[in-house]
Amino acid sequence: MIAVVPVRDGVAPNGAVAAIALAGGRAIMVGSGTRDAVAALEGVLVEASVLEMAELGPARLAATLSPRLIEVDLVVVPASPDGRDLAPRLAHILNRELITGVIRLRNDTATVARHDGRVVEHITIDGPAIITVVPGTVSAPTRPDDQVPVLTEIEPDSSPTSAAPDPDFVELMPADPATMDLAEARRIMGGGAGLGSAEHLRLLETVALALGASTGATRVVTDKGWMPLDRQIGTTGVAVDPDLYMAFGVSGAVQHISGLGTPDHIVAVNTDPSSPMMNMADLAIVADGPAVLAALASRLDLSTGTVEPQAVEPQAVEPQAVEPETVEPQAVKPDAVKLEEGGPAGE
Ligand SMILES: Cc1cc2nc3c(=O)[nH]c(=O)nc-3n(C[C@H](O)[C@H](O)[C@H](O)COP(=O)(O)OP(=O)(O)OC[C@H]3O[C@@H](n4cnc5c(N)ncnc54)[C@H](O)[C@@H]3O)c2cc1C
To answer: Which domain holds residue 322?
Structure first.
């Protein structure tokens, strides 16, 4: 088994760690800046082959890689945009079954999530196959930090035969955090019932946008209609795997956490210091969520329209919490949190 990981400008996509972990640490890293991507994945990779290619045309990539994959039973590709482009082409050239959206692999049975995770299917793999793995669903075993992967270089094939034409590359547009697929988001601000009203969720969106973050929510929030269903994180929502997760008024129920992946950094704002979300956090701020958001909005000079955050009554806890004024909102500014794009613990 081997993972094939498309790399852009030294950054491996969301899902790279899950794919490599599933393949036992063996991967072909292909694209631009592959050595940087390998360095960022130390501790996850055991053995890596790197193939430097300036452009990631999926047809050319599939034609270049397929001769090296003929002998490999199972090829694992991250379900990132580039991975989803590549996998069906590999399956076609190698004449193999394609199994997409895998969240678990045990022996010869792949578990796949369908319909936004509402339906789970078990598929028996009875021959060579290409599979795509959902980001954040498989975590890497802990290896010593100083373990350096065995590295080999693959010479680029200047004219792979039988490459189907690729579309002309015009420009790579950055994703809009407000509308992008939550599964791809590197920074997420999550809102829970503790924010207390739809208005406060709009305030969360305003602050998130200014910080280049996407917004997510708990099921309580989507059930109330304060956020759309495609923003729900968890077992019956989207599986995410950001570098940074900032949770406001989120208790951290297991059904929420199980869709969270393994963020490098978690910041939690909650009036209950003993909530599971606060226990998971690198930075736990005991304070009123809307008040912290308002303080952030003010520091960022954001117009919040008519939103005047009302303190929300803490639920089932004594208001022993630190007064909102004592909160130092700069602690959650993005530049105060060191982001390690594509780092070993990033997925
Ligand atoms: C089959 C099933 C599937 C589910 N799937 C999902 C899923 O996919 N995703 C999901 O999220 N949930 C899911 N749930 C629901 C899950 O069990 C929890 O009920 C839900 O995650 C809790 O959401 P919450 O944290 O917003 O609300 P609560 O549990 O009510 O927590 C609110 C939190 O806000 C804090 N708080 C209160 N006031 C304030 C304030 N003023 N400022 C700051 N903090 C404050 C409280 O201390 C508390 O920690 C599922 C449940 C079931 C049974």
So the answer is: 182-346
Instruction: From residue 267, give the alpha-carbon distance in Å to each of 124, 246, 247, 263, 337.
Output: 40, 5, 6, 10, 10
* 222 Cβ below 6 A of ligand 1: no
**pLDDT higher than 80, residue 291:** yes
At residue 175 the predicted structure's pLDDT band, cuts being 50, 70 and 90, is: confident
Q: What pTM, to 2 d.p., does this model score? A: 0.71
Is the minimum distance from the CB of 243 to ligand 1 under 6 angstroms? no
139 shares a domain with 216: no
Q: Is residue 83 a part of any domain in this protein?
A: yes
Find the DSSP H helices in the chain.
Answer: 16-22, 34-40, 58-69, 81-94, 198-210, 219-223, 254-257, 276-280, 289-299
Residue after which a domain boundary falls, among 153, 169, 198 = 153
Ligand 1 centroid to residue 187 C-alpha, Å: 20
- Write the residue with the smallest CA distance to atom 15 of ligand 1: 219
For residues 206 and 201, what is the distance between their CA atoms, to the nearest angstrom? 9
Choice between 60 and 323, residue whose per-residue pLDDT is larger: 60
Asked if 78 and 201 sit in the same domain, the reply is: no
Of 163 and 91, the one with more pLDDT: 91
- Here the CATH number for the domain that contains residue 82 is 3.40.50.620
Same-domain pairing of 145 and 11: yes
pLDDT higher than threshold 50 for residue 341: no
Q: Does residue 235 line the site of ligand 1, with CB under 6 A?
A: yes
CATH number of the domain where residue 232 is located: 3.40.50.1220
Each residue of 245-282: pLDDT tens digit? 999 999 999 999 988 988 999 999 999 999 999 999 99
Asked if residue 193 and residue 147 are part of one domain, the reply reads no
